[in-house]
Each structure stands twice: as structure tokens, then as C-alpha cells.
Amino acid sequence: MNQNTPEFQIIYGKYEGLEKKAAEIIAEAVAPYLPYSLTASPADTVTEQHLADIQPIFVGTAASNPYIATLLRREFLQPAPGPEGYSIRVLPNPFCPKNQAIIIMGFDDHGTLYGALDFQAYYLPEAENNHLHTTYFDPIFTEKPLPDYASISVPEIKFRGLWSWGHMIYDYKKYLEHMMRLKMNTMIIWNDFVPVNIREIIDYAHSCGIRMIAGYAWGWETAVSDHMDISNPKFLMQLQEHICQEFKKNYQSLNLDGIYFQSFTETSQETRNGVSIAETVVPFVNAVSRRLSAYCENMPLYFGLHATSVFDKLEIIKQIDPEICIVWEDCGAFPYAYLPSQTADYEKTLAFTDQITILRGKSEKFGAVLKGLTCLDWDHFRHQSGPYIMGHSAEAFIRQRAIEKEQIWRFTTAFWLENLCLAKETIQRIFQNTKGHTMITALLEDGLLEAYIPLPAALMGELLWNSSQPTSILLRRIALRKDIRFS
Questions:
Q1: What UniProt keywords apply to this chain's record, in alphabetical order (predicted)?
Q2: Which residues is 150 bridged to in the sheet?
Q3: pLDDT digits 0-9 by tens, 360-369
Q4: Most buried in the list 187, 195, 289, 364, measured by CB within 10 Å?
């Protein structure tokens, strides 16, 4: 490195919240390339002359970073295209063109974070390979200039994330951090009992830009039992009361972003106890939601509805309160099926998707739980016996568990690569039908996301962000990421 080459320096808008995390990600990404300590300064403390003497890395929004606002006004970069979107630019330094500058601009705090993550995950690996010879990597930031670059991006799906039983998450911080790196913003955790440390889990999720939705049963069970008679009005009233008391006792005071629930639809039968499941669950769910709104008016409700018991009852299901988001699962073939190899009747599944995305009209609050990643071992499943401390397993346990899951991920990866086009088409169809105003979470439990990011999880994350990109580009971008495991 020429000793006279100006140093890179982070110029941030604000060092708090998600912008703080974005600045830290840039430091994490860039520092290994530099033979000196990467410094950082708030934008309101530096002058234009100082910017001419360095190679600035601007991080923030037009509102938080005045220099980003200036560069945007002078058309050195395109505006970020919408909520959670970003604009990235690598170019000659506008304050001294013989040097370089990097601009990471978010539409908002989330967008700044996601811009920083994509700069790290996608731009830097390609910049290292910006040459004609093979094998060797360019010494960017020091001996070779960074390739010019301009990219704007915005998520197609508004709420993107994962679904898991809570006790299948062994290190909640690393699990959530890896979700964040996949630009996911929604987590649904399902529990028999609320974790003792739920408040710290919610706070940490929010620090990663992730909404936390807690799930509990509104008459859901792992198997049909004799005591649960949905034909009995007295039983249904008692169940309503239990659900409401559970909410007031365990959930009302939490800083949650929603309540997810399942009722008695997880069966292949259309009837139970001699009555229609659809005709019973609709008034039941509507009644409970009205009662809960009296306790917490603005709490979003998400109904986890298993399609297997209501395929032919959509005219009844459409009577569910339009304020409740129906989160569909078990709708047929991959990507709704547990295994990515289960593709029979895919066209039928896609046609069903078209129906349910606009079931209650163009303003439908639609959601889905997609599968084909990993799930718990139902052959050895045991219900939680009481409150527990979630996500504090020993590192040695997590390492060993991750080794045990390698064969599952190898199988999953093989069929994700074969059937990627089906997941892509399904998510595209949901996006087109809903204009992106929807929530898609993928089931990923007991898959050790806290240990590493498997290729199928990375593909899911990128599809939820941008299913419209060509498959060849999607695969190339994901394969270049340094934080991905292939099996």
C-alpha cells in the first residue's frame, strides 16, 4: 500500500439502533482488508475538507447523515426505492475524485442495515474477483481500487421470516443474528409455556430489526383427544375463557408485535365430533379475537390455518374477521410440504395459492408458513412441561447437534437446488397477487441456524427479498457469500 494513499473512514449519521448495527457491520466487513485501524466519525463533526483528505464510507439515511442528503441532491446516487430499501454506490470521491468513496444509504433504519449487509455479502466477494486471471483475489481497499458500483433494492415481501418451536432454538442471539443477515424481519416462536426470558428475547429481536410474534394454542393439539369436543358449546366457551386468561396473564404486558395462534384445523378430516371444522372454527376465532381486542386493541392477530381440513370450505373461511391475518400452511406440494422432494400436484397447489391470496378481497391480510427446510423430529416429540429458559444451550451441544444435522441439510440442499424454481414461482405468485403486503415465514426448527446459515435458508431469505431476479444470478450471489454452508 502506498503510504500516501488516504485512509478509509466510516462517516455515519447516528450511532444508535439499526444504523449503529449497520456501521458495525461495515466495520466488520472492511477492517480485515486494511493494514490500519478503521476509524469512524459522526457526519456532523467532519468538514468537506476532511472528506477530501480521506476515502469516506458514508452510512445512514438522508435524514440522519447530511452528507448523504447532499450527495443525493447532487445526484451522485439514486434514492432508496421504498421502505426497508437501500441505495449503494461505490464511486470516485465527490470531494476529491482521485480517491474513492462508498455510500450506504437506507430509505429508513432497516434499509441502512440491509444495505450494509448486502454490501458485505454480495459486493465485496465480487469486488475481490474483479479480474481476468483465476484463483487469486484482488487486494481491494489497498493496492487495487474498488470497482465502481451502483445498486438499489427494496423487499418484495413486507414481512419475511422464520417459524419455530421455541425450545428448538438453542442460542436465540445467534439464531436471530443469522436471520438478520438474511434480511428477515419477522420471527414466530411457538410454545406450550412462555419462556422465562421472553422479554430479553423480544428486546434482542428488535435490536436486530426483527418483529417478534408469540404463538400459543387456541385449541390446537398434536393429536385428537377425547376431552376436546368442538361440537359442545359449553366446551368452546370454556376454551375461549382459557385463551383470554392466558393472554392476559402471559402476553398482554409484553412488547410483542403480534399473537399467532392455531386452533383445531391440523387434520386431514373436514369434520370433528360430527361437526364441520370450518363452520365451527370461524365463529370461534372471531369471538375470541373480539374479546382480545378489548384487552389490547392494536395487537395484530395471526391465525395459523391448516388447509388440509378446509380445502373445500373457502366460502366459509372467508368469513373470518378481515382484521385477522390468515397464515396458511399445509397447502399441498413444496414449498408448503415438509420435504423439498414432495412436488406432486404442484400445479394444483399453485392454483390454490391464487385462491387464498385474495380470498377476502384485494385488501386480504394474507400470510403463509412455507416448509421444505427443517422441522423437529415428531417421532420423538415431547411437549414442554413448564416454563423454561430459551436459547441458552452450551456451545459444545450446539456444535454436536450441528454435526448431526449435516445429513439432513445435504438432502434438503439437493432437492432445493432441483426444485428451486417451484419455491421461486410460488413466492412470485404471492407477491404478484398481494403486491407484497403479506407475511411469509419459513419453518426452520432444530436446523441449527444458530451454528451456520445453510444454503436453502439463504435461498429462502433471498427469494423473500427478491423473487423476481433471474435464478442464475440468485445462485451466483448466494454461492459467493462467505457465511453460507453448502451442506
A1: Hydrolase
A2: 89
A3: 988 889 999 9
A4: 187
